[in-house]
Amino acid sequence: HRLRLRVFRGAQFPWYITLIGYLAFTVLGCVVVPILFPGTVWYTVLVAYLLCPLFAIPNAYMCGLTDWDMSSTFGKLVIFLFAVWTNSIDANTGIIAGLATCGIVFAGTSQAATLMQDFKTGYITRSSPMAMFIAQVVGSAAGCCLAPVAFFIFYDAFDVGNPNGPYPAPYGKIYRSMAIIGT
Question: What domain range is 94 assigned to?
Fold first, then answer.
């Protein structure tokens, strides 16, 4: 047990590196997300990034206890909140902004729960948490490049989203309907 604790606590990030990384990605998101999703204003994206830790910490805790990731539930809550808020700013943008901010919170809470599960496994196997975190960052960066490519290959090859096709995408309709209810 002592060896596990020594290995697990041996390589920690300084708190200021964590804070600088979080702030840098928050600023990057506040600039890029409104460009990608017109109608989503920077301060709603900022609030979504600030909500991430408030949802990520209990989600990681619940996931550690039950092995159930509740990220989608927190994301659905955010859809309603931000769809109402952005609809009050501009009546034409509530749906897109609600879905975009849902994606931000969903991704943040999901990554936190996944990383916590990885740390739990790393503690049991005596792995370095620094190495695990770096592997998570590399995997996320690779996913940012590979996931859109895989999506567009799949999207071009098959009839995605057609209700009568082989891939009707029912969750897209559900999430959009929830954003419509919020507006």
Answer: 2-182
